[in-house]
Amino acid sequence: MAENKRVIKKPADNEPDLFEEVFGIDEEVKEARKKLNEIAKKEAERMEKSIYGEADAEESKATEPEEVEGKKEESIAEQKQEETGGEKKRKKKRGKGKGRTRKRKGAVEEPSEKEPEEVEAEEPEDTEPVKEPEEKERKSTEKEKEEAESKAEKKKALEKRVEEKIVVTEPKFEVQPKLSFLEDEEGNVFIGRKKSVYEKYGSQAALFIGRVWEEGYKKKNVFLDSLNPHVVFVCGARGSGKSYVLGVIAEELALKNKGVGIIVVDPVGVFWSMRYPNREEKELQALEKWGLEPKGLENIVVFVPKGMEKHTPKGTYDATFSIKPSMLTAQDWCLTFGIDRFSPTGLLLEKALEKVEKGYITVDKERIKGTKDYSIDDIIFCLENDAELNSRDRGYKVDSIRALVSRFEAAKSWGVFDTRGTPLSELSRENQLTIIDTSFLDDNVTALVIGILARRLLAARKIATRREAAKRFESTEDMLELEIPPTWLIIDEAHTLIPSGNIKTAASDALIEYVKQGRRPGCSLVFATQQPSAIDTRVLSQLDIIIVHKLVFNDDIKAVYKRTPAIIPHKYKAGAFIRTLPVGVALVGDRREETSRAFIMRIRPRMSQHEGRETETIETKVVLSNEQVLKLISSMYWARLKRDGKAKIIEINRTLNSLNAKYSSTVELDDVLAELENKGAEIDEASGFVLLEEKKPAHAEEPEAEEETEPVEEPEEKEEEPEAEKGEAEVELLSFPVRYTREKAEAKMRRKLGKLFGLLAGNERLIEVNLKYIPIYRIEFNYFNAQNMFRQGVMFVNSLTGEFIHFKDKFIESKGLKDLYGLKEAEITVLNFLTKPLTALEISRKVFMDENKVKRILKELVEKELVKIVEKNGTILYCLNRRFDLPRSPLHPLHFSLQRLPLVTAEALMKEKEKYSKKEVRELLQKIWKKLVVTSIKEIYWPAYEGIVENIKTGKQKRLYIDAFSGQEISLS
User: Where are the alpha helices (DSSP H) in 645-741?
Assistant: First the structure.
């Protein structure tokens, strides 16, 4: 019997639980587990005694340990009495009843040094031998009852736990089936790696992501393969560590595999901090235990949307990204806008995209050429001006067009579109960890960005794997888009991109295609979510590695068990098991046959900084003194006064209330106004404004002077002359930024003179280079097209040349607008129709004028050398004598091109004097387009370097100009 004896190992008090905490554990879970373990420990002891048939013996012995301290002195007294020949009867009584024993103890405790004989003589006075058996029997019965009740309760609790199948402690038996891996000589294990790949490359490019966390395997490090493409699925409840795992994988890829591109799409904005070493105290201690050191990544590049550059703190990003609108299909736009693909609006959108690409004719009979690199403004212009789309008979409803235009207008504010776009080679590059921060964007826009990105990556890698096709690339643009390495795409919050059921996003089809076809081209995907049940099953069916953290809901747990590509032991299928996983511990399943079953893994601590932790709101509260808040708000509005000249008092008060609430201050409005007044501002309580006196003339503005009351031009010139004469007076300007340095501009001018050296024999020299600011008129207007549809627009005119100014990689000016200043409305109308040689009769029919009047107009235009006469087969024809290159419509996309450029506030020392006044520009525009109404003309400034070149012999001077924004040579004559 002794040989067959079953040994049950008792859990030691200090034995670690099933999981040790890396990043801490909820106190509630910890306390519950502690109580369950205590109960299990007591039950294990009781069951052991009953198995060996020793329960009764142990119970009788168990009463003595409970009263060891109370009986210690009694046993000493008994021993002394036995040695001195005490009576046998007294020994029997002493052995039978505990009550008499306690009485005897009381009798001998005080006179501890008395002789035994004296003690025996005193005993009869203190005892009642007759009642002793009854008292002993009664106490024994009560104790047996209590013990029986206690045993029944314990048995009931144990049966209840067994019935509910609650797992309370680490099983002391081996989990079946037995766990086996692909291992190296040092005991490190590999997941996702084929045996043939290991035999060829060993541990090369293996990603250290954690350790096996099961009994008997705890010293085995886990390495994830990155030489082959994989689909890795990470899931877990909020705060369980799933984003942390993504960071570990990205960190390892950046350090261990220099031959792949790594793109992390960050919808929360927590991965940019990977450039810094880990600073968290707990994790620093954990890193030391794991034999790792804190380390920031040097090869990280963080991209933010181009339109969000101004709103992103410097130091948290490195570059901007954008997408060409032409890369989007009609389906992409419909999914992003939430439009039914085959609704009238969806069909209108598809037709507009086709027309923008192939070309179309406007309602004004203007032919617009098609382009493949179109902008959103081009789409809007087509929707509003295409003759077919706006036709009353064959076109679409005005409301449908307006609704679609408003959506595209909103899309411009997302900040992700640009006609140039970011080349794919900048995002997927060897030895570069790319973070695309989409935390600024709505979910539907993020889905659009990821869908386009996944589609481009897959297409590029498909072509790159076909070496014969790759050799035929000729253009640099194709190379930048297609020459990319095998790429790992890492996505967080994937349930918003590839939802289950009938819901689709702009990323759904692209990501499904990516995982289905990406294996051969070398495209890997790592995606994470809080809701496994909310992910499209077509993506889940392709995964080969799954990492499951703590989950709470049954649907999510069932979805995980259903899609885990490995055998899951029965022990781990219990619902309570997944629900009680600590932070940083996960169930891992690997599709490779080298891994026998799913196993428990503890994630290694991050070496780089992780910003995805829960924010403790008590730590984010910042308190500033009243003096600090007063200084903050006064400096804020002083800068605004210098820029705009005025500020509303009610707005100042609203801002002050917000700052007081934020920083726990109590600054009064009167204190702020007094501070601004001390700086030089004027408080006008009657109008409700704070004004800056020195800015008033500049803001007694053209909108008032733009009434149809013929304002006098001379006073305006007199006011401007003193400012131009000062030359050195500082004026704050809203301008395009200076991006080209003075040194570069000067060197460029000298090179130009050097090229002319042979012709001019060195007669010219550069004597001075100055930065000047050229006034550009920003003209806002309302325009009614042929269908009387109201549209607001903007255009820009150079005040020095009088020409329209546009931007396409560099500043470009129109040709011929300056020749129209001073012409009559009828003359401009005639010029507008002279697109080819015409007779006077043909022109009169086009402009609906009398032929003789047309001839008089043509005669005047010939005298001004704007029109010339040609004779063909004896017929007199009139044609343009000069080249005119002007946009045919005020809503032409070129007019909006400067609107996309950034503006800054600059302290300029030299401002050029306008040659064409605002009044002249306004009148000319309304002559060209009769349905155009100018609502505002404001000045912005164009920085340019002016180089003064002097002829050594004659002393004559000329000027060269270099654009300080783009570095291109420009002409201002």
Answer: 649-663, 669-679, 696-699, 702-705, 713-726
Q: Which of 584, 607, 594, 499 is nearest to 192 (CA)?
A: 594
Q: Which two tokens stand for residue 196?
A: 């043939």
Strand 206-212 to strand 221-225: parallel, antiparallel, or no bridges (unpaired)?
A: antiparallel
Query: What is the Cα–Cα distance from 73 to 106, expressed in whole angstroms?
Result: 10
Lookup: tokens for 287: 């890193």
Closest CA to 769 of 786, 789, 745, 739: 745
Q: For residue 663, what are the contacts with CB-CB under 8 A and spacing of at least 6?
A: 622, 623, 624, 628, 629
Is the pLDDT score of 714 beyond 60?
no
Q: What is the mean pLDDT of residues 937-957?
A: 87
Q: Please give the Cα distance from 349 to 341 (Å, whole number).
A: 9
Do residues 763 and 953 touch, judged by C-beta distance below 8 A?
yes
Taking the model in full, what pTM does it have? 0.56
Q: Which residues contact 857 (CB under 8 A, 6 or more apart)?
A: 826, 827, 830, 849
pLDDT of residue 889: 84
Judge contact between 360 and 388, C-beta under 8 A.
yes
Structure tokens at 458: 């897959």
**C-alpha to C-alpha distance for 529 and 235, rounded to whole angstroms:** 5
Number of neighbouring beta carbons within 10 Å of residue 943: 22
The two tokens of residue 819 are 């020749």
DSSP 832: H
Closest CA to 263 of 521, 507, 527: 527
Neighbours of 62 (CB within 10 A): 11
Whether 736 and 902 have beta carbons less than 8 Å apart is answered as yes
Please give the structure tokens belonging to residue 768: 């001075």
Output 286-292 pairs: Cβ under 8 A, ≥24 positions apart: 286/22, 286/23, 286/605, 287/605, 287/607, 290/604, 290/605, 292/604, 292/605, 292/607
Dist CA 259 CA 187 (whole Å): 27
Residues 6+ apart with CB under 8 A from 577: 167, 571
Nearest to 647 by CA among 695, 707, 718: 695
**Model confidence at 621, in pLDDT bands (50, 70, 90)?**
low
DSSP SS3 for 394: coil
pLDDT for 665 beyond 90: no
Q: Answer with the residue of higher pLDDT: 197 or 697.
A: 197
**522 conformational bin, left if phi > 0, alpha if psi -120 to 50, beta if neither:** left
Give exposure, 149-165, as e/b (b: 16+ Cβ within 10 Å). Answer: eeeeeeeeebeebeeee
Structure token digits, residue 510: 């692209």
The residues, any chain, with a CB within 8 Å of residue 483's CB and separated by 6 or more, are: 425, 460, 464, 470, 473
| Buried/exposed 225-250: b ≥16 CB within 10 Å, e otherwise | bbbebbbbbbbbbebbbbbbbbbbbb
For residue 574, the tally of other CB atoms under 10 A from its CB is: 14
Helix, strand, coil shares, percent, the chain, to 5: 45, 20, 35
Nearest to 281 by CA among 23, 30, 27, 16: 23
- Cβ atoms of 396 and 383 within 8 Å: the answer is no
Closest CA to 906 of 737, 740, 742: 737
Q: CA 631, CA 799: separation in Å to the nearest integer?
A: 40
Cis peptide before 124 (omega within 30 of 0): no
The Cα–Cα gap between 417 and 359 comes to 21
Q: Is the dihedral of CA 328, 331, 336, 340 positive or negative?
A: positive
Tell me which amino acid residue 522 is: G
Cα 411 to Cα 788: distance, rounded to the nearest angstrom = 25
Spatial CA neighbour of 798 closest among 934, 944, 935, 907: 944
Q: 783, 932 in Cβ contact below 8 A?
A: yes
Q: What phi and psi values does residue 869 have, to the nearest 5 degrees? A: -105, 135
